[in-house]
Amino acid sequence: DAGVIQSPRHEVTEMGQEVTLRCKPISGHDYLFWYRQTMMRGLELLIYFNNNVPIDDSGMPEDRFSAKMPNASFSTLKIQPSEPRDSAVYFCASSLGTLGNEKLFFGSGTQLSVL
Amino acid sequence: AQTVTQSQPEMSVQEAETVTLSCTYDTSENNYYLFWYKQPPSRQMILVIRQEAYKQQNATENRFSVNFQKAAKSFSLKISDSQLGDTAMYFCAFIAAGNMLTFGGGTRLMVKP
Questions:
Q1: What is the pLDDT of residues A31-81, one digit of tens each?
Q2: Which of A67, A90, A96, B96 has its CA 20 to 30 A from that of A4?
Q3: Number of A–B residue contacts, CB under 8 Å
Q4: Nearest 5°: CA angle at B59, between A101 and B98?
Q5: Which of residues 23-62 of B touch A (CB under 8 A)?
C-alpha cells in the first residue's frame, strides 16, 4: 500500500479564498483523523471519522472549517473563507482497529499558507 | 528524505518502574528538532518532550527524559516512575528547517498495576 496520501503538498492562497485539502487513507482502515500542526500549539486533533461517520469534531476551530468523508477512500478538509491564522501544516492519518488499540499512519501533510 | 523508525510496536512496564522507548532517524540535515508525542485514547497528540539537535544536553521534563545520540541518530525516551496514566501510544517525530514533521510508526505502551 502507498500509505496515507495527502494533496496538495503545498497550498498558497489569499485571505478569503476557499481551500480544500484532500486525503486518501490506507485501504481497509476504518478510522481517519485530521490534525493541524503549528509551532505555537503543536499538533491538534481537528476531527476524526469512524466508518465515514464523524465521531468527534470538537477540535474544529470554527464554522469556517468543515470536513467530509463521502466514502471509505476519500476525505476533505475545507476552509472557507481562509484567514492568515489558518496557516499551518495539516495532517491526515488513518488506522484500523478498535478504540485505543490501533496504530496510526500519518500522511506527509499539506503546508498551507494564507497570505 | 527523512525517515523515523520506532522498532518496538508494543511495550509494557510495571507501575513505578522505568521504561525506555526507542527511536532512530535518518537525515542529512545538521539542524533539526526531535519530538516525542503521547496519544491517549482521546486521539489528541500531546507534546511530551522536545530536543534541539544543536544542544548536546539531553532534554528533561519531569519524569520524562531523552537519550539523544546525534552521531548514532538515536533519540530514545525514558519514562521514570511509570504511572497508569502513561498508558498511550507514543510517537517519535522529526523536523528540519523548511521540512514538515515526519512521524515514526508509534509504540504502544501499557503500564500495568
A1: 899 999 876 666 788 998 999 999 888 889 889 999 999 999 999 999 999
A2: B96
A3: 42
A4: 80
A5: 37, 39, 41-47
